[in-house]
Specification:
Order of helices and strands: HHHHHEEEEEEEEEE
Helix content: 10-25%
Strand order of the largest sheet: 1-2-3-10-5-8
Radius of gyration: 21 Å
Structural class: alpha+beta
Number of domains: 2
Number of helices: 5
CATH superfamily of the largest domain: Jelly Rolls
CATH topology of the largest domain: Jelly Rolls
CATH architecture of the largest domain: Sandwich
Largest sheet: 6 strands, antiparallel
């Protein structure tokens, strides 16, 4: 794990000396210097202490990645999210981060019935094109059109239907990701 330069940058942004970081974490300045220079990989427990002192979420440190953050429209990763397979186009190169944005397309008349996922999740949909009929537990059926959005707990989703004459395209966000 090569997180050292990013940790040093954050420490400097906070105008914190290595000694202050050591006092705050209970770790030695020598060890922290080695971490910042990528000479040692800290344990998860040490990394947690460093993250807390630097006021960073641990997942952000664990997600430091030098891959290209740009996803081109003609080169989106295609993945299956569930069984039976639901094919989606990812809108990120980082599917293991806390939030998973993806593009979903349903042909006119197509219906997606929700599959209950093990972990509690949040989902958010934004309609790019077409019309969507949305069924949520304990809600009346909603009709959504271009520009409409909805945010809900995943366990409440019953089904999504593509209604109308053109395909339904929606941008979806899911946290945490199911993949």
């Amino acid at each position: 794990m090569n997180v050292g330069p990013e940790l040093r940058r954050r420490r400097n942004d906070l105008r914190m000396s290595l000694r202050e970081l050591a006092e705050s974490t209970g770790l030695s300045t020598g060890f922290l210097s080695q971490v910042e220079n990528d000479r040692v990989s800290p344990s998860l427990a040490s990394l947690e202490r460093i993250a807390e002192a630097l006021r960073l979420p641990l997942f952000e440190i664990l997600s430091i990645d030098d891959r290209d953050p740009v996803v081109r429209a003609d080169n989106r990763p295609q993945v299956s999210l569930e069984e039976p397979s639901v094919e989606v186009s990812l809108l990120t190169n980082f599917p293991n981060w806390q939030m998973l944005p993806f593009l979903r397309r349903l042909e006119p008349g197509e219906r997606y019935e929700a599959i209950r996922l093990e972990r509690a999740r949040e989902e958010w949909f934004y309609v790019l094109s077409g019309e969507m009929k949305l069924e949520l537990v304990n809600q009346s059926v909603q009709m959504l059109g271009v520009g409409d959005s909805v945010h809900f707990a995943s366990g409440r989703l019953v089904a999504v239907d593509s209604v109308g004459d053109e395909p339904l395209e929606i941008i979806c966000m899911m946290t945490p990701p199911p993949i």
